[in-house]
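Contributing: when you submit paired examples, paste them exactly as shown. First protein:
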Amino acid sequence: MSKAKTLGELKKSGYQSRSIKEELRENLIAKLKKKERVFEGILGFDDTVIPDLERAILSRHNVLLLGLRGQAKTRLARLLVTLLDEYMPIVAGSELNDDPLKPLSIYSINLIAEQGDKTPIEWVHREDRYVEKLATPDVSIADLVGDVDPIKAATLKLPYSDQRVIHFGLIPRSHRCIFVINELPDLQARIQVSLFNILQEGDMQIRGFKLRMPLDIQFMFTANPEDYTNRGSIITPLKDRIESQILTHYPRTLEVSRKITSQEAKLTNDQKTNVKVNNLCANLLEQISFAARDSELIDEKSGVSARLSIAGYENLVSAAERRLIINSESKTSTRVGDFWGVVPAITGKVELVYEGEQEGPYMVAVNLMGTAIKNEFLDVLPHPDKLKKDEKDPFGVIRAWFAAGNTLDILSDSSDKNYKNALKQVAGLENLAKTSGAKGDELYTYMELIIHGLVEFDVLSKEYLETGFSIRDVLADMFDKDMFDGLSN
């Protein structure tokens, strides 16, 4: 349809008015019939959240997305814009996006009465039909609904009893748009009350005015369950007026979590070209998030955002890039040792319970990495302490090498050549990594994983250095301590 410039041209074009909920519904049906992906970039919700949201749209419902931090609630809401028509006609100059065939404001009603079919028409792109407001305790009814504007009254020389002196808030200005309120429980109860009639009856009150304005809005709300007990709550009558409440969730598999992290991480072209993140490191990073969500040291009610993995991925690549630059190398791969550069991405994104506070954020992060290393280790190798009596110890040669008094220094900034040579000197380590399925660039990462895994299972001991780690036999530390105690006596 060509873009009409006047009301008369719009009528001749065959344009028919429809509500935004009908618009969303019809466009969703068209996409579903064509087997098109409706919410592009949303991963892990194909069988859970997205079908629920599609059913809500087909039912023409207002929606509450309920879930912990970092579960793509706001992104889902923003993607609803793709279900709108590309352009929407409005009465030119209308502050309420008035439908030319169904004007709402006094301005548009009077303009059409004066100019008839010559009334000028403007077209609004769908991207401009999305309005978002973060609920904070200082949000007022004037912000959302509106207030009397004394400056407008003085400029137009109108009394306060005239409707034209009203300055409309965000909700009326979102007529024929998608209006999103994020973190709804943070909105004061008395402000939530002001939404009752807008949602149900379509009227509102501004100061002394009671306006019957059948606003046409698709409401979307987001909330975190934590807010119900910590900061505020959604009052029951308001929840009753929101027809569909949809629960979101974190990725349920490593594979989905990896895809989300890879999609969302922001890397430079140099980082993408020069630093390779192999499968083992990618899995290990996601294991940290999964371990955090199961940790007794972290408040499960707060959740662990997907942003932890995303920021961690960026830090991991940057740790490898820094090492590459220091050693004047052209390309490198991430190592297990690079994960200690991920600690700053962990400490700021987890809410600790009392026991976690006692441990401290840094030690909690280190413990999470230790748990992740154990989980990844056990995916390819048996538990060192649960070998059967008649089973050959796959770690025997490595144990013997360290028991002979040898040590392994893994330095954070060592060149790739020195890093590989250091791991190669450990007897039996390379063969064990190869029999575990490691090959190519992953071989040395697997070798390092085995070393760190044996440390986590107390087969070896690890001493933290300023520039890395020193690995040695766990009994050697005990003998050294005994000898020192004997000398001191």
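Second protein:
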Amino acid sequence: MSFPTTLGALREAVAAGRVPRRPVRDELRDNLVAKLRTGTPLFPGIVGYDETVVPQVVNAILSKHNFILLGLRGQAKTRLLRALSDLLDEQIPVVPGCEIHDDPLAPLCSGCSARVATEGDALPIAWRSRDRRYVEKLATPDVTIADMIGDIDPIKAARAGLQLGDEMTMHYGLLPRANRGIFAINELPDLASKVQVGLFNVLQEGDVQIKGYPVRLRLDLLVVFSANPEDYTARGKIITPLKDRIGSEIRTHYPKTRQAAMAITEQEAWTDRRDAAGVRLPVCVPTFVREVVEEIAIQARIDQKVDRRSGVSQRLPITTIENVVSNAERRALLSGELVAVPRVSDIYAALPSVTGKIELEYEGELKGAEEVGRDLVRTAIATVFDGYAAQADTRPVIAWFERGGELELADTSPAAALLASVDGIDGLEHVARAVGGNPRDPEPVRAAAADFVLEGLCALKKISRTEDGRLHAPPPTGARKRDPQREFEQLLDEDAALKGKKKYYN
């Protein structure tokens, strides 16, 4: 389609119906209705909200509401708001050079009105794309009314030789500059109360007044917000009159199933590894490794030692799987393997991606972030392995360790070395098949399955393991009273001696 280039040609195109002319909310509604009728995906990349959040967003747009997304961190609030721009028209006509992107057929500012009066149908027309019509602002306490709405600009007045009261000396804020588009405010509670008051007229009457001018600009906007409800008391709050003017309040949530969480992580995580020459290193992440990584976040969200009000972001499994793949990549490069296959034991090497994503309660602070992270990993491994091994007989493996069998491995052990070490363990191959270790698979894949079995039995406390490779005899019945301080110091000594080796024993 060829776009009109002058005001006269635009008038003819609008009259003939070739160029639609409508308010932003009607534009969003009409395009949404068209997508619903054709079954076109509304928000590609948004996973897990099809039955919950998306229908509520659709209802808000159909109702032509300004709305707010309320949810904990890492729940795709900003991503969903940015996806709204796909519901805008591809291009709209604007007056070229206008700061508020005026409609050439109904200009708001005095400068555009003067140009239309002077140039008439010969006025040149510019076109603004949909991606430039989405304006986003992260609310911070230092944001002012001038930033959001506008103010008098004495420098502009001096340069143009105008009086300060002249309308041409107005400095437009973010809201007027987002005219004829979508304006999003992230973390709304961080916005000062007096600035929130400045949004009243925009949401209710649809206009703003810039300080010092008897001019009210009737802006054409959809205003959307995001907020973390648990931050209201910590950093600020949304004032009640503003909440009353927001048409719809929509609650977001974390993925409700492990499969949905895995789909999000697979979509967002960077696992396609290449070297400096651009040569790709094949990466094969076993399903059970992905499941354990997701289960860590699920367990953290219900753990008493983790602050539930703060939430556990979906970024935790994303960054964790990236670190897990990196540890497998390091092992493959050191051992000369042609494919990097992460193992469940690699997740312990990704603890820095876990501990930085959780806020701890008092009990967790006493225990320490790293120890809480290890507990979460062990619980996740036990949960996932219990589901996989429900139909497998693990008793021969356990019995092998009970007879005094020992096994020492390092996280850099090549797949061939690991398989050779576990070759004599009774029943291990059978259990490994049950969790996905097909005998025809490459060695790194079979090694990952064997590692999963060993880690799973450790997590279920069927066998024991020391991180530093030392064997510890269990205390006899009636042993002396525990000394927590001494045990804590021993743990510190063991961590200091950690060299990446593990020993399995009964």
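If you have annotations for the second protein, write them as plain sentences, like these:
The two ends are 74 Å apart (CA to CA).
Residues 469-481 have pLDDT under 50 and may be disordered.
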